[in-house]
User: Fold these one by one.
Assistant:
Number 1:
Amino acid sequence: MIHVEPVTLRGFGVVLEPLQLAHASALADAARDGELWNLHFTFVPRPEHVEQYVREANAERLRGSMLPWAVRRESDGRVIGSTRYHDIIAPIDRVEIGYTWYAKSAQGTFVNPACKMLLLSHAFDGLGCAVVGLRTDGDNARSQAAIAKLGAKRDGTIRHSAMRRDGSARDNVMYSILREEWPAVKAGLEERLAHAR
């Protein structure tokens, strides 16, 4: 059974730091970069709600269901977003990666593959996970393409399965990577990261 605890993950030009209230101001700035809270298919907090967002994430961490991080870019030290493990099911060695968002200026750069490399390496090589899941909104084509590019397998769509912040119903598109698939996914990420910066 996996045992998930806060840890700092570093490499490939990013640092994932356990999410704390000290990150709130920088996270608010990151959310302003692109006014990300206006995207209906994400859970990016409005700047004035970032402290509540951090408190709620850490309350879930204490319950054992989530492990949240702030994403910092090493080159300039700037906090550029957030990500987390969620829906942690320790007895079956499963975590999901999600609640991921980056400042608009960091999107489409090395940041996402770097973060996924750190998170997946920690999950499979550090924690000993049997599977890592990912999910995204059925309306978020960009996220679906990014997850598919990782090499994750699309498991299917759970229709009308969650509520968005605006109250509308969301379809969850589900993906997963099994432990035996990790070496191929890792090789693909290594190739991408070798050419990304």
Number 2:
Amino acid sequence: MKSQPVTLPDLGATYSPNETQIQQFRERGHVFLPNVIQKEEIDAYRPHILAAMEQHQMQNHAIEKLVQGKRENWIYINNIWTLDAIAKQFVLAARFGKIAADLLGVDALRLFRDQTYFKSPGGTSTPWHQDGYFMPLDTDKIITVWLPLVDVTPEMGPMSFVDGSHREAKYMGTSMADETSIKNFTESIRKRGYHLTNYGNFAAGDVTFHSGWTLHSALTNHSNRMREVLVMVYYADGARIAPARSLASDAPFQEQFAERMRQQTRESCFPGLQPGDLAVTPMNPLVYSRY
């Protein structure tokens, strides 16, 4: 790591979701929490995160190539916490971990990975998908933090969620990344009786949390500003590496792609582990524990 730890605002476990917010998360699979980070905290950390991104964005690892594919105007960096000491302080902050543990109802959480989802003006859409489908873990206690570092307007492509899609913890399908495919998939979801939620406007420091099995997407950034978003994914401590799925040679492309993703994430996020192993490596530090 190039930078050295400096004195920055303490992002301790000082924010607690109320019972209504916890209930919403458990019923809908997602929740919007305002002002999780104060403006002065964002102002202190954001320049360091941007500097770390600028330094490392030319490093395009296998997992990033798989996710980004042909998408344009994205800045996608995986596990920035391993690249910069200040980014590490931010990603591993107990504030986010405690909120996530409260929402999931677990005692301890580990980091699966962090990701930068920065979309420049014209940055293409994120297709409908469920994070848990691509994760090589034997638990459904998975949660994703979607954290804007700047104000986000509806034109910038904030996330949309399918309410209640997490309840059965099973694959519900995906769309392609183009907006026509996303629109058609959206209509098919509505016809199945699901309600969609998009929170629209975010102030920097407002945060959403969603279950690993909540179906979600985000449209193209149609604004003239960069959509700066940092994502952290956590899972309940005690999870194990799931067995690889046996696929026929003529399995659908989506199933083959998902298995490749699970293999890549196992190698990058759980190096050296095999199916059945406890999901604990130096890449998976505890972000929060009640004990």
